[in-house]
């Protein structure tokens, strides 16, 4: 993707790093400061300074490993990473865990085995070649458990998100050329970070729908996902 290619496994692991970074950077007071005063206020996403940004950027394996821990302890109860196989966790470009540790992790999961001669499918411990099982078997089960909400899969969430331009149309082409020259392609990472740290109290005049939460970075500023930094002990 562009001048600095990011593999699927690295793109999937990148959100783990963002989870770690956002957990360390989150400050409720700062998140509430400067919140929009109306529901129609456009979301503005600030550009961050990432170690992996630019033409010479590189991923921090320690941060990716911590991010995977954040995912397993805080996010995996709702969000899946179905496009990520266990083997990806031990490959270069991702967290690069020791293969023996990943094999042990995989064995704690149960996956469908191949059908037997009667066509019946039994469960077996997962191996490196298996995909990481999602928390819910299908969309219907997820929506039933989460009051109708459908948590997005996080495998490629960074690549799937971008920042909307709110500048005059005649400025956008020049901004795009400047981004190409600088090797900027981290808009998805900037969005995910802004979303995770964008929770705040709803400003006066904004009425939240039932089971919704106010978020400065989310379109419409109402999201079904609760603030992940409140109501728990976090990850140590």
Count of alpha/pi helices: 8
The CATH C-level name of the largest domain is Mainly Alpha
Number of domains: 2
The radius of gyration over CA amounts to 20 Å
Outline type: globular
Amino- and carboxy-terminal Cα gap? 34 Å
| pLDDT < 50 stretches | 1-8, 26-38
Arithmetic mean pLDDT: 81
- Total strand count, please? 4
The CATH architecture of the largest domain can be given as Orthogonal Bundle
Please write the string of helix (H) and strand (E) elements.
HHHHEEHHHHEE
Measured by DSSP, the beta-strand proportion falls in under 5%
Helix fraction by DSSP (H/I, runs of at least 4): 25-40%
Strand pairing plus helix content: what structural class?
A: mainly alpha
Q: What's the name of the CATH homologous superfamily of the largest domain?
A: Cytochrome c-like domain
Largest sheet: 2 strands, antiparallel
Spatial order of the strands forming the largest sheet:
1-2
Say what the CATH topology of the largest domain is.
Cytochrome Bc1 Complex, Chain D, domain 2
What does this structure look like?
The chain has 236 residues and is mainly alpha-helical. The chain folds into 2 domains: 8-84 and 132-223, Cytochrome Bc1 Complex, Chain D, domain 2 (Orthogonal Bundle); 96-131, no CATH class. Helix content is 33%, strand content 4%. The chain contains 8 helices and 4 strands. The strands form 2 sheets. A two-stranded antiparallel sheet has the order 1-2. Strands 3-4 form a two-stranded antiparallel sheet. Strand 3 (213-214) and strand 4 (222-223) form a beta hairpin. Helix 1 crosses helix 3 and helix 1 runs parallel beside helix 8. The longest helix has 18 residues, at 8-25. 27% of the residues are buried. Mean pLDDT is 81; it is low at 1-8 and 26-38.
